[in-house]
Request: fold
Amino acid sequence: MQIAYLLYDRFTALDITGPHDVLNSLPVTESVFVAERSGPVRNESDTLSLVADASLTEVPSPDVLVIPGGFGTRALLEHEPLLDWIRSVHEGTRYTTSVCTGSLLLAAAGLLDGAPATTHWLARDLLGELGAKPVPGRVVEHGKILTAAGVSSGIDMALRLIQIEFGDEAAQAVQLGIEYDPEPPVDAGSPEKAPQPIVELVTATYRAQDSGTQSDA
Amino acid sequence: MQIAYLLYDRFTALDITGPHDVLNSLPVTESVFVAERSGPVRNESDTLSLVADASLTEVPSPDVLVIPGGFGTRALLEHEPLLDWIRSVHEGTRYTTSVCTGSLLLAAAGLLDGAPATTHWLARDLLGELGAKPVPGRVVEHGKILTAAGVSSGIDMALRLIQIEFGDEAAQAVQLGIEYDPEPPVDAGSPEKAPQPIVELVTATYRAQDSGTQSDA
Reply:
């Protein structure tokens, strides 16, 4: 089972390494990090590079596609070479998945028209503008498309994929292997749980970081 | 506040990108990925490369050190150039931290003699053999040293560091930003919670992957 992890300028690292370290725990998977051009790809805060070991043309038919989010998605919403590849690959996948604002690219490619999907809570409106039906939920399943909410939710999405494809015991084994028994020291992981001033602070901070590239700002 | 993220051959990606994406959410931090030599560093399953942007000598005095785990730790337990750097850097840090088997390197450097610490649940015995006092806990604090349990626990460790240093509201804002509201589809994230056959399966799998380099196998 070949799994393609898409990279692009200004992606979010945890969005893609979370699912990778979950899915890669299974001995039956083959991982390939892919971008328009092979080589180092810089993350959204310009603090790290992950290497794309292959270019898009070298990975025409993965079984699973994982698209991370990141501030870089906004610059790609009309970038046909990438959207064409996503559309083409999707025809043959067993699962097409996204984390965070990665679902904006699925929507821009026309794969989520009218379909229930999720994204980072701050991008829900934009996801709707792109034709999807934003719904609550940390992992939203629509046929073979799995979309996950913000950043860390890719871990849950990948575990759910394993559960669907390989069963509960496989998911349990992977969860135990990565010791995924969360104990956050505070409880503000969603806009519904966080105090309102914190929601406003994070909203303002993200809007500022995203300025110039976000069409719904 | 400069944060050094250590890379070495056969590290675990989520161990280091988890803390990075948490700590890097704060505008007051500067991130640097560091390894003995700068350039791409391959992870433990040979499926991805993260780039070290600096060599050890270029990062003599970070404020925070984050050491990830990975099967590669075992080959470094007597590697003095790295252990010397860890000891030297630790003298000036505000926090010295590890995720998963990264604590084996702290112990090998002599920084955990008799100190309470944690690691991946499968490496607890080895951590004790190296002089530390393995204790239960997802994040264990001992003065300025924070050790975290397996792989995904680095997210909780980094949030705890933010809570200690910057307060509850900063931790809440970061948690909301990465939408860390975990919903694993199964409940087997620790050896205490997982069914016994799953614990045995994961133990056997990890021992096999680690063969040839693990001294307690």
In short: Helices of chain A lie at 13-23, 80-92, 102-108, 124-129, 153-166, 168-177, 196-209. DSSP finds seven helices and eleven strands in chain A. The CA atoms of residues 182 and 204 of chain A lie 27 Å apart.
